[in-house]
Amino acid sequence: MSTKTKFKHKADKFDFVDRGADDSESSESEESVYSGLEEEPGTSEEDQSQHSDESDEEENDSSDDDEDDGSQDEEKGITLSTEQMNELSVGSDDEVNKQEFTRTVQSSNRRKQRPPGVKVADKPDEYDYDSSDEEDIRNTVGNVPLEWYKEYPHIGYDIEGNRLLKPQTGDQLDEFLNKMDNPNYWRTVTNKMTGQNVVLSKEDLSLIQNLQGSKHPDSSTENYEPWIDFFTHEKMIHPVTNHPQHKRSFIPSKWEKLKVGQMVHALKMGWMKPTKKQTEEEEEKNFYMLWKDDEESEITRKYRAHLPAPKMPLPGHAESYNPPPEYLLTKEEEEKWQNMEPEDRRMNFLPQKYSSLRLVPAYRRFINERFDRCLDLYLCPRKPKIKMNINPEDLIPKLPKPQDLQPFPTSQAIVFRGHSDIVRTISVDPTGQWLVSGSDDGTVRFWEVSTGRCMKTITMETTSSENSCIRSVAWNPHPDVSLVAVAMGQTVFLLNPGLGDKMLTSNTDNVLNSFTPTEEENTGRKSYVDWTSVDPADKNYENGFRLHLQHPKEVSQVTWHGRGDYFASVMPRGDSMSVLIHQLSRRRSQNPFSKSKGLVQCVLFHPVRPFLFVATQRYVRVYNLLKQELSKKLMSNCKWVSSMAVHAGGDNLIIGSYDCRLSWFDLDLSTKPYQTLRHHKRAVRAVNYHRKYPLFASASDDGTVIVCHGMVYNDLLKNPLIVPVKILKGHTISRDLGVLDCVFHPQQPWVFSCGADTTVRLFT
């Protein structure tokens, strides 16, 4: 098929063909049609793209010729193309002539194939819209390091093996002239692949500036779009999400709680301190020379570190030429002054009186004193001595006045007399109406608090005189049960005093009589204590005896749980059975420890949590009764623990010891004492907290009861405030013993105390 036929077939594809147009108007469109279809031998795409503009101009010029001239050029072009191509393919030096000849042949072929009067629609050139992101395709050396060609005049080789010469670069003088003359020099860069200079456009510069400023490369992109609140507080007909909230949104985070606890602990210990606000002077940056000290000369440094000599004291009235008469020495004083050694004299001169200044002679010892002064300045070393001007009152912590911390007991109100021997222990009922006391005379007395009358006296029956003293009494804290536990010898008695409301007394007896032992409890269990109930027909039943608990060793303390069903007994010599826990409703005893924990002094139940405090001679162990494990071990820092008490909140503990110390423990803060008080001069026998007021008291063998204000704040960042407010005196020391026990009234800020002087005293 001929070339004309091909062209006609292609032209029929377009719907918008204009048959009446001139040939000159369709030259550009025809070139785009055949730009990718015909290739002459010996030409490449690079040559065609480089000289596309020249070929367009030649086509426009040749379109104005006649048809006959075009046919002649076509014949010559066909004939010459065969001859010229054979000649040009031999050498590579005539490459430029080959390109010009090829363009002539292409233009003549297009004129031959173009039918007259036909205009083809404009078709875009496929190379004008090349979207390739590759490097400049003019350098075809491939993936070869350009460092290999640093010392060569060429930059690589093309596909035919011809060298690609580097563009000529001037010397430094040309570079300087280009820098001064070329206004675009500052934005001109060199392409490493081709070695040519490329002028950056405004878009390229803005892209580079955005990258250097850590911004989005495209400046038209908006980094901060306006916020669209999809989740609004208004109820929508079609909400974005309607799923129910997760369970974890209602439960406090466990890890946040632990983290906050650690931070609170660090704040209390002083490890973490809040950042102080800087003042305006601190915010201003003070610049100074870093190496100024090293640059200073020796003379300058000495002058800067100069210590001035001490000045001589100013002369007084005795050194005047006309001193007052009282400063003049008598003959006896003058003789005495002359007989003294020069070092012992108070003055190194004799005061003399002259009527006028012109009669004063020269001072004899002037040269000697000047010489001594020079020796002092030269030989005596001088050293800067830092003096701290501290007011001793500033070292004392500022505590609030006791008058601002009222109410607290201040004076003795009632003295309960009736015991004939040492009163070792006392306890108050939950209502605060009755008081029970136990003495070494073997009696338990019940007192009315408001009047001081002894309402009832119970004599405890014992088999031996050694165990006749009553070690501990404890009133049941449950308000609906009237029971008192009394520890004497190896037995713990449960008494119903029968005081107050008769309904309460009968209710207590009904609870005790309603117990029925089960078969499981009778068999298969080891009994640590023998439970014995008193027969109602017995005379002891009328005195108030209800239950007897026989222990294997001597019992030193009895304490109740807050709910009133459990109570614990302490046997210091019981080894592994030192502590026993008893349940009143089931009449069952159990031993929580399998091994001996040391010489147990006292035990206490936690007022809120299922914890048991066990105090030995030097340590206090906190046991979790539910998990049956040791929760904490407190270091008392004392030689022998005597007593302890737990705060009503359960987070603070005080311990009294026989070495005159009272230690306050913050259980959430540390295992060591938060504060240690040494107010007493002799052994501390008992400590106690008030249930409602921020008060605690300590009783000592020095015959005093010290009441302190102990405020525990709900804010964990605040430390407890401990202030001694009152020293209560009234007990007398007998047999080297003073106050043996102290208990607070459950409702009022009153404190009861008992001592070796056989009395019980109430301070209000």
Plain-language structure description:
The strands form 9 sheets. A 5-stranded antiparallel sheet has the order 10-11-12-14-13. Strands 5-33-32-31 form a 4-stranded antiparallel sheet, with no helix packed on it. A 4-stranded antiparallel sheet has the order 6-7-8-9, with no helix packed on it. With 764 residues, it is α+β, with helices and mostly antiparallel strands. The longest helix is centred in the first third of the chain and has 22 residues, at 67-88. It contains 18 helices and 33 strands. Strand 16 (566-570) and strand 17 (579-583) form a beta hairpin.
Shape: flat
Number of E strands: 33
The average pLDDT is 78
Q: If strands are numbered along the chain, what order do they take across the biggest sheet?
A: 10-11-12-14-13
Radius of gyration: 57 Å
Q: β content, as a range?
A: 15-25%
The main sheet comes to: 5 strands, antiparallel
Helix content: 10-25%
Key traits:
5-stranded antiparallel beta sheet; 764 residues; flat; 4-stranded antiparallel beta sheet
Furnish the topology, listing elements before pairings.
Layout: H1 3-11, H2 27-34, H3 45-50, H4 52-62, H5 67-88, H6 95-113, E1 154-157, E2 163-165, H7 172-181, E3 188-190, E4 197-199, H8 202-212, H9 254-269, H10 280-283, H11 292-295, H12 298-304, H13 331-339, H14 366-379, H15 392-395, E5 412-417, E6 423-428, E7 434-439, E8 443-448, E9 454-459, E10 470-475, E11 484-488, E12 491-495, H16 502-513, H17 519-522, E13 530-533, H18 539-543, E14 545-550, E15 557-560, E16 566-570, E17 579-583, E18 588-590, E19 602-605, E20 611-615, E21 619-624, E22 629-635, E23 641-646, E24 652-657, E25 662-666, E26 675-677, E27 684-689, E28 695-700, E29 704-711, E30 721-729, E31 739-744, E32 751-755, E33 759-763
Antiparallel strand pairs: 1-2, 3-4, 5-33, 6-7, 7-8, 8-9, 10-11, 11-12, 12-14, 13-14, 15-16, 16-17, 17-18, 19-20, 20-21, 21-22, 23-24, 24-25, 25-26, 27-28, 28-29, 29-30, 31-32, 32-33
Helix pairs in contact: 4-6, 5-6
